Amino acid sequence: MTDHTPGSGGQPEEPTPQTEGSPAGTGDTPPAGVPQQQPQQPQAQQSDPAQSHATPQPEGQQPYGAQQTEPARPYSPQQYAAQQEGQPSYGPSENQQSYAAQGATPHATQQFPQHAPWPSAGGHTAVQPGPHQAHGRRGGLVAGVAALALVCGLVGGGVGGFVGYQFGGDRSPGVTSLDQPRPARSVNNAPQGSVQQVAQKVLPSVVQLQMVTSRGAGEGSGIVLSQDGYILTNNHVVSGDGSGGRLTAQFHDGRTAQVRVIGTDPKSDLAVVKADNISGLTPAELGRSDDLPVGAPVVAIGSPFGLSGTVTSGIISAKDRPVRAGGESGSEDTVLNALQTDAAINPGNSGGPLVDVDGNVVGINSAIYSPGNGQGQAGSVGLGFAIPIDQAKRIATELKDHGSATQSTLGVLIGAGDQPGALVRNVVPGGPAEQAGIRNGDLITKVDDRPIQDPDSLVAAVRSHAPGDRVKITIGGDRTVDATLAGQG
């Protein structure tokens, strides 16, 4: 009772260790930021006096003084004698400091008291301190280095702690999403025309039908037509493959009821059934399909694979699609003039509604296309087909009232020809075609403005009308006739 077609890098260089206060050995490069010392040459002193200090030099080396822009002053006799004895020279006196002011004559000096303020660092002043001051300043520098090392150690410790925190994770408890309070109850008013709004409106009117026969069981869907239990569905859902069976309806509110068949029409694949001893159901609202445009949004509701109340959405992909459904291949009795949709339709959706954005039923879901070898149950590939509600409403009314329904007919037997169209093989005597002047061998190419490509196209076009409708038939490429369609059971 399923409605499917068979288918289917390098190591870092370690710095050479050096003894504090001694010049680097030959060929060694001092660490970055330490002035390089060369024998027998004066070193450049930094412009900032706070960064300068005199270091006693080993025997045989000259003292390291400040490099000056003016010519260097000659040693005094005392300094020369001291140099000859291998003693370092520190300047004129322990209590005085000798400054060579920038811009002075080569041999000019200025005397400053021991506690006189230091000249500005920006003056590029050359400095040659006395021995005690050199020792004090060296000690100050060592203390400053120690302080700097302490600060760096603190900073390093802080960085290490931060990295450890980042990689080790916070062990202290913190607020997570699980600790957040539950929000207030959401009042979700579905926007008009949304799938949610359509589902809320239509779901109470959709039924799951279950057929149990001697050959097995199957499911389908149906649409509530009345409060007292009339239901519209597909003929192939309730036919039981001709073996009869037990039919049960399960409604949206959870109630179930036995169902009996009121009338069936295999040619249109429609049926009306009635659930007994039940009331208070919600009838569906029926719309119209004649002015439904291609691309219009639609919603399909049903029980695919037994999953009742399933909602899918899509659009109208095409209209007036000739489709065989629910019958044997090659039989004109099952040709439908179908709406095509990409809303997911699967076995079990058969008989359920296809609705527009207003929640009005515009089609009865009946068939799907499934390519393959026909092994197992088919599934949706985005090609679903529904009987237009305009046709289904007329048939359902007749089935409810009379237990049977009539179909429109032109009164011809047709087949395929060498060209696109429906080839008339035989004209039924006294029928609409004969009365309109259609003859054997004519090739029907249009019904009104609808092109006819093959025999199925003609059957679908005729059955889209009601008996008594007047249509224009085009023969070949230029001949047209008017015909009034008849009805037959």
From TrEMBL:
Biased composition (Polar residues): 52-100
Domain of life: Bacteria
Region annotation Disordered: where it falls in the sequence: 1-138, 173-193
Chain segments annotated as transmembrane: 141-165
Record domain PDZ: where: 394-454
SMART domains: PDZ
PANTHER family on file: PEPTIDASE S12, PROTEASE DO-LIKE 8, CHLOROPLASTIC
Name by which UniProt lists this protein: Trypsin-like peptidase domain-containing protein
